[in-house]
Each structure stands twice: as C-alpha cells, then as structure tokens.
Amino acid sequence: MMAYDTLDLLPSPCVEAVRDGREPIYGLQRLPHRGGISGAWRATVKRQGRHIARTFKDSTYGSEQAAFEQARAYRDTVIRALPPMTLREKATRLRSNNTSGVAGVYRNHDPAPRWVAYICLPQGVRTKGFSVTRYGEEAAKARAVAQRQEWLAHMPPAFHIASQEAAATAHRHFPERLECVPDATNTGRIPSEADDAILNDINRRFDDLRPLRLRVSIQRHGADRLRGTVAFTRRSTLLKQIDVSIRNRSLGAGLAVIGVRLHALIQDLCGPEIAQTFHDGHPLPTLHPGILEGGQAIIATLYIPRCATAE
What is the rounded distance in angstroms from the CA atom of residue 46 to the CA atom of residue 83? Predict the structure, then answer.
C-alpha cells in the first residue's frame, strides 16, 4: 500500500466553530441530522476538474469530533497526494462552445476572415488576429495557436485554487508543476490512471481506518418475550438475534438470562477480547428490569479502533 503524509497541515479550529460557520475551513462541510439519518462531515476537494468527495458519519466514527478529524485527515491526504490544476493548465481547457479545438483560439468573420488568439493575463486581455486572406486558412490558424502558446509562457506560475492553505501545500509538494508550460493544443490535464490508483488507494486506507462497531439492544417482543440483537460492523454488518421467554419467569430473571446469552453471542461474533471490553462497560446480566418499562429498549454501542484488534 502506498504511504501518504497525514499529519495535520491546516489549522485545527474548534469543531463547534466550524459547524456553526464561525470558522469556515477549506474543503469541509457539516451535514446536519435529518430525521433518523446521522449527522456527518463531508470532505470535498477539486483536482484536475474532478470533484473528490467522501462523507464521514458521526454514527460510523462514534462522535461528531471523531468524524470531523477523519474528514480533515482525508482532505489533507488528498491535497498532498494529488496536485491542483495550474493557471496555465486551466487556460488550455476547452469551453463547451469552442469550435476550433484549441482553447483561446477562434475564427472570426468580422470585418474579414481571420483566426484570433486571445488570453487573460494579469495585465488584461490580449488578442491578436491573423488574416486568412494573407496567410491562408491553415497558416493563419497555426499562427494564432503559436501566439497563444507564447502567451501561455507569460502566465503567472500559480495554482488555480482559492484556499491559501491548500495553495501553500501545493507549492510544497508540487513545485515542479509551476515550471511546466502545457501545449496550447491539449485540452487541459486529464486525471491519469496513476491519479486514479492513488485515489483508490487513499479510499481503501480510510476504509480500513473506520472503527469496528458493536451495537447491542434488548427490548420486549410481545407480552411474554425479550429479544436481544447484536450487530457487529467490520466492513459489513453481522446481525444476530435471540429470544428469551418471560412467560414463566420474572422480567429481572429474563434480563439476567438474555444478558448471559448475549455475552456468549458477542464472544462468538467478535472474539473474547472485544466481548470482555463490552462487558466491562455494559454488564448485561446485571441490568435492572425498570429500564424496559414504558416500552423503551436498552441500546449499548461500543466503537473499537482498528489498531485495537487484529484483522
């Protein structure tokens, strides 16, 4: 697996301030709770015309803060691994209404047929026409393309990116890209297969960083039965249920029985180490029957960092 630097680069503001919009942070957006859907942080970065986005749910990582930290780490990893477009590269991208096949070059018929080169520079917009009558169709277009190429070299060596922090990162990691003057006849840098491989590897790495999640619930099922559910999420979710009759035993006795059976089930699904960690925080056999009064369910969730268990 490829290695990427994921040390914090950008400032680490208070998560509440970022969520409330008081301290906006590049590439991160808060998605609020909606109905039964968990709140989340969304990392969004644009590289080479491609929108790269990944959502980090609070319910997946155990808290809003943990989801925020993972989203920020993902953003930092992407902007260190994939370069943004330079101003020169952006200038060679074709617009949807381009008919010449070369950005910044078009044919004009007023007042006479000619090929025109134009470019936007810090000093202003520059244009220059080449007469079809004087040079011929192909030669006039070739001269316009050559003029466009010359002007590209005069564009500022800068990245096309709004965030100052992200621009500083690009300068540190991809300085050689600022020295390149692209061919005026290409259509802008297209993400390569190497870029795809890097992004796929980053996504696999962050898949592996998602914590394991163990969720256990107990609720009354009908008038004379308790139902226990164990959901263990690794890459997919394993779900097991057990029922215990309380027709001939008290609710307290039923809870003790289902607690012992759930503990054994957790051991089978997750292994003894995780089962013991869960039991230390949620001793199921000692639950008080009053918890289930009023139709409420008992729900306990444990998040286990990947480094805490062997895959």
Answer: 10
